Amino acid sequence: MCDTCGCNITHGNERLIKPGGKLEKTASGKEAVTVLHSLLHENDHTAQHNRQHFDQHNVLAINLMSSPGAGKTALLETTIQQLRDDPKGKDLKIAVIEGDLETENDAERIRKYGVEAIQITTGSACHLDAHMIHQALHNLDLSNFDIVFIENVGNLVCPASFDLGQHSNVVLLSVPEGDDKPAKYPVMFRSADLVLISKCDLLPVLDDFNAETAKRYMHDIASTAPVLELSSKDKTGISLWLDWLMQQVAVRKAWLEDHPEIVVQGNDHHHQQHHHYHGKSNV
Amino acid sequence: MHELSICQSLMNQVEQIAAQRHASSVISIILGIGPLAGVETQLLKNAYPIASVGTIAEDAELIIESLPLRVKCNECGTESDVLPNKLICKKCGDWKTTLVSGDELMLMSVELECANDGEQQETTENMDNIVDKNLH
User: Fold this and answer.
1) Cα–Cα distance measured from residue B64 to residue B99, given in angstroms and rounded to the nearest whole number
2) Domain B3-68+101-114 indexed as CATH 3.10.560.10
3) Residue extents of the structural domains in chain A
4) pLDDT value of residue A16
5) What is the ipTM of this complex?
6) Where is A198: in which H helix or E strand?
7) 208-227 of A, contacting B, C-beta below 8 A
8) Which of A14, A78, A95, A233 has the greatest number of beta carbons closer than 10 A?
9) Which residues pair with A120 in a beta bridge?
10) pLDDT surpasses 60 at A1
């Protein structure tokens, strides 16, 4: 919601604003200030700022979310390798921002492929927020990249609430987790622009997982996100994921061609050279 | 447990509003939260005393309005009250629906005790200006 045109007045809250509602003027000596802003306004504002930076440098930003161990890092490893073998993908330059509570392990896995990776360790925080990404962007020269993957903290709850400035949310659902995860975590799965059923090589041994059931649960939460089945191990379905990815790159490029004022010409506008005031990050 | 960080963000907003109005204290804070906001109301209530300690809103009452979860069917246009994992049209059963209300996570209003009583004030905040100042 935009916070300016009144579209944040919804069917849910308009009864509070109408005369006689709880938000009407209060007794004298006191002042009731109607605010109607998202509680995450500060985060959302920084996220929008991050998104502008991605757009200015013609970078597609993808936020990968899942429960811990669903295969986000393995998917990135396979993606990096497969793109290099792909005639359309081999020129795409990738960077990864890794979020974990502790360790540099995931960033090190990515760096082994010669890909730049920035590790954010959140300590006890269960999600990445826009301020952390903003901080990470200071160490990343976006003019060198086409795609930035943000691998969020493994968690199907909290990351769904925090916009990071990404263009798309990709949510992984691994076969061992069970096909009813979209029904159990509707907020997370509703946020998905694409759902990847990962570890499909395990389907022969975990035959109680039914991809069609997962898709039915996605419909129950009114999601129109495509659901792809893949395995980073035996590479089944990876080409469908790469097709989706390259389509997103094309969509971004087409959008930016229609908005030439957004893209930075030359190297005169590096995020790293910005002077920003940084408030403390919300954790 | 992201409710604590959401609560801290709330405190930042409330403190900025109170400072702008030269309020002496914050009496109450009203939030509007829908079932698909991804926030547990009780956890937010538990986090509030931790986040508000030492702020101008330390003694404020936190009032949380639970907002309804409603969808509108893209096919037949019917509006239905639904459950968070069953957002389908209750009339025709179609799953292609649009959320009308239910994902709000909103600071609705703040009640302030103001020193200079009676002064006419704007009724809506422009938080963008405040945040912009912090970011650039």
Assistant:
1) 21
2) no
3) 42-260
4) 66
5) 0.82
6) strand A194-198
7) 217, 219-222, 224
8) A95
9) A99
10) no
Confidence band, pLDDT 50/70/90 cuts, at residue A17: low
- A64: pLDDT strictly greater than 70: yes
Roughly what angle, to the nearest 10 degrees, separates helices A238-258 and A72-84? 80
Any bridge partners for residue A173, and if so which?
Answer: A197
**Bridge partner list, A170:** A64, A194
Q: What does pLDDT average to over chain A? A: 89
Distance between CA B109 and CA A23 in Å, rounded? 6
* Distance between CA atoms of residues A57 and A245, nearest Å: 18
Taking contacts as CB-CB distances below 8 angstroms, the residues of chain A near B17 are 33, 35
- CA dist B94 and A220 (Å) reads 9
Biggest distance spanned by C-alpha atoms of chain A: 71
d(CA A125, CA A133): 14
How far, in Å, CA of A73 to CA of A43, rounded?
Answer: 25
d(CA A118, CA B82): 42
CA distance B73 to A51: 31
Residue A19 CB neighbours (<10 A)? 6
Q: Which of B85, B104, B132 sits opposite A12 (nearest CB)?
A: B104
φ/ψ of A243, rounded to 5, equals: -60, -45
- Choose the weakest-confidence range: A261-275, B35-49, B84-98, B121-135: B121-135
The CB density around residue B129, as the number of other CB atoms within 10 Å, is: 8
B51 touches chain A (CB under 8 A): no
Gap between the Cα atoms of A93 and A89, Å rounded: 9
Q: DSSP letters of B77-125?
A: --EEE-BTTB---TTT--S-EEEEES--EEEEEEEEEESSTT----SB-
pLDDT digit string (tens) for A40-59? 999 999 999 999 999 999 99
With pLDDT > 70 as the criterion, what percentage of chain A qualifies?
83
Digit-coded pLDDT (tens) for A151-209: 999 999 999 999 999 999 999 999 999 999 999 999 999 999 999 999 999 999 999 99
CATH 3.40.50.300 fits A42-260, yes or no: yes
Whether A277 contacts chain B with CB within 8 A: yes
